[in-house]
Design brief:
mainly alpha; two-stranded parallel sheet; 2 strands; 4% strand
Length: 135
């Protein structure tokens, strides 16, 4: 599978939050899980795409002053990523690195957001989705 471009992934996450929260009335955790589930092939395509999805979901979540526990608990590992696949465009890596820095600043503002707890079954479902292999 070809890596989906930076802008398309970012737009997909922003659109997903707008659609699921504002139009369907889902909360941040439900929206985050739904995006990961619907986009699992792209999410699991590469370290770059997985990092971009997690960072983008975290940034969008924090705009709503909360973040799902299953995103928050994994975020540290994605915030530390600096090396990605060689075939990834350098400009896209630079944009992702800027997003990582933005996310670090947002996440450091403790008290500005809540961590939304989810059920064990929701966490297991996300874990399963993230373990799937892309074609």
């Amino acid at each position: 599978m070809n890596v989906m471009g930076y802008e398309r992934i970012k737009d997909a996450v922003v659109f997903g939050f707008e659609e699921y929260i504002e139009e369907e009335g889902l909360n941040v955790a439900q929206t985050s899980a739904k995006i990961l589930e619907e986009e699992w092939r792209r999410v699991n395509d590469s370290l770059f795409t997985k990092t971009l999805y997690f960072i983008s979901i975290a940034i969008e979540s924090l705009k709503y002053k909360e973040i799902a526990d299953f995103i928050y608990s994994r975020l540290d590992s994605y915030l530390e990523n600096t090396k990605f696949e060689e075939h990834i465009d350098k400009n896209e890596i630079e944009m992702l690195m800027q997003d990582i820095q933005k996310c670090k600043k947002l996440i450091d503002n403790k008290g500005e957001y809540i961590i939304r707890e989810t059920s064990d079954s929701a966490k297991s479902r996300v874990e399963y989705i993230l373990s799937l292999k892309a074609d």
